[in-house]
Amino acid sequence: MKRLVLVGGGHSHVAVLKSHGEAPMPDTRLTLVSAKRHAPYSGMLPGLIAGHYDYHQCHIDLVRLAGYARAGFLEVEAVALDPKERLLFLAGGERVEYDILSIDIGSTPPTFGIPGVPEHVIPAKPIETLLPAWEGLRARAAGLKRVALVGGGAAGVELVLAMQYRLRRDGAVPGFDLITDTPFVLPSHDVKARRMLQRILDERGVRVHAGRRVAAVEPGRVALEDGASIDVDAVFWVTGATPAAWLRSSGLQTDAAGFIAVNPCLQSESHADIFAAGDCAGVTGQPRPKSGVFAVRQGAPLSGNLRRALAGQALDPYVSPPHALALISAGGKYAVATRNAWALQGAWVWRWKDWIDRRFVAKYQRLYQN
Ligand SMILES: Cc1cc2nc3c(=O)[nH]c(=O)nc-3n(C[C@H](O)[C@H](O)[C@H](O)COP(=O)(O)OP(=O)(O)OC[C@H]3O[C@@H](n4cnc5c(N)ncnc54)[C@H](O)[C@@H]3O)c2cc1C
Are 344 and 328 in contact (CB under 8 A)? Predict the structure, then answer.
């Protein structure tokens, strides 16, 4: 039996589990190592914050999905890797041997070495720490005056609008500040989408501080590099993606940003028995945004190549399309759709996004709910 070990129950690995459940890889013992039992689906996270969904509607139960796939499940964080000895080290001291390893552990927002950030902000990821912190904030909503979010990408914009929407429904009306060091929000999106969402932020009274960089965070205060400061009750940190520190010290080849360097077959550039997908991987020659859409797309090619690697067959390269449709929700049941140079908005866009997102999660949930 060959030992295939999956680390992280991210958007690509759920597809590997599904595929193995449908048609088991021959002579393979599959094990999933995941820090948490429930895998959140990123597309529905703003809707969970806004109150459109409950927890279980936007999470895949990895214990039950692994059961469907007849895979072992270890609910524990991986903390180190020795690729020479083919050993994965787990929190708590255990180690797992593998023949083929696949890594899909996502990313967390970078802190840029800014003083006070590790101690005083609530990072948007991991989502398992964001959700309790958010519920803690809701519990003291009546006393809130201002809430700041740092990061002007799609996740920051969606989160600020979702939080404001939910707190208003809870009867609280704190002010919101969205701080970004880019000249405008949504810098990687087309100008039409940017304008639509900027208008929504303006209409909802969100104060956008574009082109301004955070210098330090203290309890109750965000200091900006231009000398200004904002008094706040909470700071959410939504600044993009940085890889887990243990990947850098693993001996795997990484890209300039520290993500696992993989070839178009999603195979490590330095270790043929290691694969990676999703945010934690950087495909050589295919720079892509760190977004759930790309992690989802890599699921099927990763699955196929793990199968081929186990069977000793030639791998199949995969080129993900450079652009993806982005559906950006705006707090209530309203959203903006954008791809390349076009953008559309409306309640119907939200219903479309809702249909796509529910369908994605249901594809996995129905495997173990019957
Ligand atoms: C607020 C917010 C909203 C977003 N909205 C969208 C959106 O609408 N659309 C979109 O495409 N993208 C969105 N994103 C981006 C999206 O979340 C990520 O790009 C996506 O989750 C990456 O998927 P992944 O498979 O790489 O990892 P993840 O989905 O992060 O999954 C990684 C998994 O690995 C586990 N794990 C982590 N470390 C370890 C470890 N050491 N050992 C074992 N297990 C581990 C985690 O528990 C987690 O379940 C959003 C991000 C944020 C913060």
Answer: no
